Amino acid sequence: MNDEDLLLKNYDYKFDNNLIAKYPVSPKEDAKLLLYERDKNKISHLKFKNLYEILPHCCIVFNDSKVIKARIFGKKQSGAKVELLFHKALNEYEFLAQIRARVKKDDILSFCDDLKVRILELFDDGTRKIEFLKDKKLNHKEVLEFLENHGHVPLPPYIKRADEKEDATQYQTVFAKNLGSVAAPTASLHFSKDMLKKLEKKHKLYYLSLHIGAGTFKNVECENILEHKMHEEFFFINKDLQKILLSDEKILAVGTTVARTIENFVRTKEENGLCSLFLHPKNPPTRVDYLLTNFHLPKSSLIMLVSSFIGRKKTLELYEIAMKENYRFYSYGDAMLIL
Fold first, then answer.
1. Which terminus of the chain, N or C, has fewer Cβ atoms within 10 Å?
2. Which residues have CB under 8 Å from 113's CB, separation 6+?
3. pLDDT tens for residues 20-53?
């Protein structure tokens, strides 16, 4: 194979861990914004608050999924500590989770408020099928209520700190509505309510839901990226947005999740279901015109998605420039706008 865009190693870049943002900037709009204009091949260094002035006429699409407090801490029967990261519901009474501790089938874990978790099945990828128990099996709604009351914000592993009180609002978009994600749609974290009001004066704003799974942090490990199996995530697109997507209106996707969901819709015409679309230079976008996104991990499906818009070499060039200019990386970091 001689196609450089298909080789995983070619999506790597040398990174200084000091650039990982452990906290967001305050106020939100003071984050840096790297603007790349494709038609001029021009790079500009701005503030996020400049977005209002530089956006061309377009409809702006956001992901309104709400982050679950998906991390809980408890004990094994031996008394050893255990950490559970809720992933998603498999059906009304069975769930998928990651558990930081050795467990085996039928083990019972104990958590606060008399909650028990039974291990039902162990999968090869490290995830576990579980059920939640009190005096009875808890259904999906009851599990989400428990997590909302007793869980911790599931900060990404690279932030390397425990969640704090402020993360409950800072790691959640101001328009979060539909509970279901275990990671935030991070490009949207830059928007305040005031910024949205300002944008509404010039642009139509639309919302879709894609519930981001823990698979978003899964590394691409196949040497040929085409062999990578993308994780599946539930999505829903309302009728108003569907009409826009079937029109010729220009579209700005706020975040990689929005870009993938829109592109999945134009390919399948499905308004809800599971999205596992993998965008990369050999599978570029056909409907999304502009992309607003944060800076992503090397060798990740997310940096490959950015490469699907502007090419792998240009993406790595922009990342190199961002590092030299001390942009802050990853979930709480700065943003890039591709026009």
1. N
2. 146, 149, 150
3. 999 999 999 999 999 999 999 999 999 999 999 9
Query: What span, in angstroms and rounded, lies between the C-alpha atoms of 250 and 244?
Result: 9
Choose among 143, 167, 165: nearest CA to 154: 167
Nearest residue to 293 (alpha-carbon basis) of 255, 260, 321: 255
Rounded-to-integer distance, Cα 30 and Cα 187, Å: 14
**Amino acid at site 251:** I
Tell me the two tokens of residue 91: 């059906």
Residue 216 banded pLDDT, cuts 50, 70, 90: confident
d(CA 64, CA 236): 10
Cα separations in angstroms, 207 against 254, 261, 289, 292, 301: 10, 11, 17, 15, 23
pLDDT for res 214: 84
Beta-strand relationship, 71-75 and 81-89: antiparallel
| Helix 301-310 with 256-268: angle, nearest 10 deg | 70
Helices (H), 157-300: 167-170, 193-200, 239-245, 256-268
Q: Are 67 and 171 in contact (CB under 8 A)?
A: yes
Domains recognised in the chain with CATH numbers: 4-67+165-338 (3.40.1780.10), 71-151 (2.40.10.240)
Rounded alpha-carbon distances, angstroms, from residue 162 to 88, 156, 159, 219:
22, 10, 9, 22
* Residue 98, both tokens: 């990651």
State the Cα–Cα distance between residues 276 and 233, nearest whole angstrom. Answer: 7
Residue 68, CA distances (Å) to 46, 182, 263 in order: 32, 6, 25
Residue given tokens 């010039």 in the structure block: 202
Average pLDDT of the residues in 136-148 = 96
